[in-house]
């Protein structure tokens, strides 16, 4: 059992290192774009399925409430939380449209659409990013495979390659926390440990 536990942690550490070596510049650019958008008074729309939906909700809460410092709330909405909207769109139209329709309703040029998909192939996430791009939103993708269909609709596509889904999700969470912390640093100064 100990050997397997160590293997899980080693896989996670290796995937984080691989990600950082391949994506540091892209991550920095995405952070600057998010900070600039929020600094202008724009909002962040976050979306994904399953564990990625949970990550979208988690990160929206970090922006709206707080992360490491008490600061003004930042406008962020997880498009995964309104069951009436999700089920009506899924029932009346298609599950593929659940994020696209919400972005059409809520998105404005200069806002940020942050789509999350460990496979990089989630049709509803891709459609959400595509309409966001067409509407003039800043598009950021947290994906898995480097050559995901998501890539073509993202200004910044952060790829976590070569791992199992749980390991990719772990890296996505670290990326999300890094984004929030660095946005706080840019907008509000040094983040102090609590």
CATH superfamily: Glucose-6-phosphate isomerase like protein, domain 1
The CA-CA distance between the termini, in Å, is: 35 Å
Order of helices and strands: HEHEHHEHEEH
CATH domain class: Alpha Beta
- What is the approximate shape? globular
Structural key phrases:
alpha/beta, Rossmann fold, 5-stranded parallel beta sheet, 6 helices
Report on this model:
The protein has 194 residues and is an alpha/beta fold. It has one domain (2-188): Rossmann fold (3-Layer(aba) Sandwich), CATH 3.40.50. Helices cover 56% and strands 12% of the residues. The chain contains 6 helices and 5 strands. It has helices at 2-39, 51-64, 83-92, 98-106, 123-135, 165-188, and strands at residues 44-48, 76-78, 112-116, 138-143, 156-159. Strands 2-1-3-4-5 form a 5-stranded parallel β-sheet, with helices on both faces. Strand 3, helix 5 and strand 4 (138-143) form a beta-alpha-beta unit. The longest helix is centred in the N-terminal third of the chain and has 38 residues, at 2-39. The relative contact order is 0.19.
């Amino acid at each position: 059992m100990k050997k397997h536990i160590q293997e899980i942690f080693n896989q996670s550490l290796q995937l984080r290192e691989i990600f950082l070596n391949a994506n540091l510049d892209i991550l920095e650019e995405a952070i600057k774009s998010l900070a600039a958008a929020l600094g202008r008074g724009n909002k962040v729309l976050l979306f994904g399925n399953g564990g990625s939906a949970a990550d979208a909700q988690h990160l929206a809460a970090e922006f709206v409430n707080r992360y490491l410092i008490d600061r003004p709330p930042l406008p962020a909405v997880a498009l995964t939380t309104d069951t009436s909207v999700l089920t009506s769109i899924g029932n009346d139209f298609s599950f593929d449209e659940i994020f696209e329709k919400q972005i059409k309703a809520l998105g404005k040029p200069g806002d940020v659409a942050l789509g999350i998909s460990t496979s990089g192939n989630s049709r509803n996430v891709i459609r959400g990013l595509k309409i966001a791009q067409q509407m003039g939103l800043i598009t950021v993708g947290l994906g898995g495979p480097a050559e995901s269909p998501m890539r073509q609709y993202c200004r910044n596509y952060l790829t976590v390659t070569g791992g199992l889904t749980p390991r990719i999700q772990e890296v996505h969470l670290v990326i999300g926390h890094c984004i929030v912390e660095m946005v706080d640093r840019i907008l509000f100064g040094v983040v102090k440990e609590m």
